[in-house]
Design goal:
mainly alpha; flat; 5 helices
Length: 95
């Protein structure tokens, strides 16, 4: 159902519409929970790109997205990339 909803949203909304953020994150979370971290990573990154364009640079949602991306990288075995995203999230949270 998340895939169907996202498909509809992508047809109706601008590619940078903030309403897509939840759709991307929801579907990414499903993939992540199923152990499919590569497709989750793609969706988490799409959500982050929209957030970076529409939210203040110190918004807590950015830290959550950075952490989600770090987790996806960690689970696909790319610990160095995971560390970079976890550090970015931590830095943002400490501000």
């Amino acid at each position: 159902y998340y895939t169907q909803a996202l498909s509809i949203d992508e047809k109706l909304l601008s590619p940078t519409d903030p309403l897509l953020i939840n759709a991307y994150n929801d579907l990414a979370s499903v993939y992540s929970n199923m152990g499919q971290h590569s497709p989750a990573l793609v969706l988490f990154e799409k959500a982050l790109r929209i957030q970076e364009k529409t939210l203040p640079l110190n918004h807590p949602a950015l830290a959550t997205s950075l952490n989600n991306i770090g987790g996806a990288y960690y689970h696909i075995g790319e610990q160095q990339k995971a560390k970079i995203y976890f550090q970015k999230a931590l830095t943002l949270q400490e501000r």
